[in-house]
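Follow-up to my earlier ticket, as requested here are the two runs.
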Amino acid sequence: MRAGLGAAVVLCLAVSLIHVLMVFLHVAPPNPVSQQFSRQVTAWVYPLFEQNWRLFAPEPESINRQISARTAHLTADGTVRVSTWFDLSAVDDSAVEHNVFPSHTTQNMLRRAWTSYTELHGSDDEPRSERAVMIQKYLRNIAADRVAAHRRGAFESIQLRVTSLPIAPPATANGGRPAARTAPAPSDIRVLPWWKVTPDGN
């Protein structure tokens, strides 16, 4: 019993030390060790232990994104009925506004899913890795769950539209006086392909 307990303790300590070392190499600036073992570090960290520095040095948003979704349903007579666009971002914004303790889900889930999607997909929206496929399914399932929670009716496909509008910098000049206002930058609209929605989320 003592030998087995001792072995379990040693194993837990070893795994803990390896985990701390892998996470440290992941977040540390590039160095010879992290570059030499980058493959092993990446395999250990993703997808469950992703780290970033935003907790300590938050990066303010420079772009407002409106993520909308619409659905398609095949009716009994064979026609496809497409819904109007449903603003997913507005639902999250309304849940956060005037809420003293907004949940992490309403604040970050949809936004982080979209950020991860853009990092892993090109402009053609084709996934080129297993992680990209996983993030695509994750984003699709979030959108499908949000639409199903606020709209009635069955649907078999879903499509996302993301409208991005840069946030203008504070309009101040020398001496603290307001500077002349500039015209807002044009918005960028990205429409994703239709994705099939299945009951099991795959």
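Run two:
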Amino acid sequence: MSAPINVESRSGITVIRLDRPESENALTIEMLAALADALVLGERDGRVKAFVLAGSPGCFSTGNDLRELLNFADNGRMDEGIVRCLKTIATVEKPMIAAVDGMALGIGATLLFHCDYVVASEWSVFEANFNELGMVPDAASTLLAPRIMGHQRAFEFLVLGERFDAERAYEAGLVNRIAPAEEVEDIAFAIARTLASRPMEAVGLTRRLMRGERRDVLTRIDQEAAANADRLRSPLARDTVVAYMRKSR
């Protein structure tokens, strides 16, 4: 793949790594397309039993690439590739384990609501900074976060945009396990390998029953995307993104 996404399959596990460390793994449309393609290919491959999603050492992802977001604001529209990737993540039938070391911001945080097990390093931080950008959260997080965290914590996370450290994310139910940074990926892979050793029909059926009907999740992804498209057509959208970019430097 030409996008900075590395895909490796071993022992029935597909490891998908975000590998753009020079930009703190800010997700471009090209990267999101490669991520979606890797999940689709893994779903079709009967040898693949589970996915591990990882970032670079010290950074999982700082969210959408702000320069692309600025371009979206200039054009008054979002790229459909974002919605395609989010819907692919939302409908994956095989277990997904996340290995998070460092920052998980924006979409880098909200996509974790679709993972079945999240291992985070002790110094990882999680933040849904959408409102500060003048946007609404994505990945159906406005539906899933209250279910997982409860309304009050989800409000802190999605609306106030509070930064959660690893311990707070664990207490809120976003993280399953906290580990030293050097152990995060090994633990995530071990969890995936345990799942791969179980009867996959039973694992898949149990997971589907737990996750429930996906129709409401897909509908919410569309609703959030439509809201963000409207936001990007706002005269203030570009100024808000530029102001955030200057603050982030």
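The only thing I checked on run two: The chain has a mean pLDDT of 93. Let me know what else you need.
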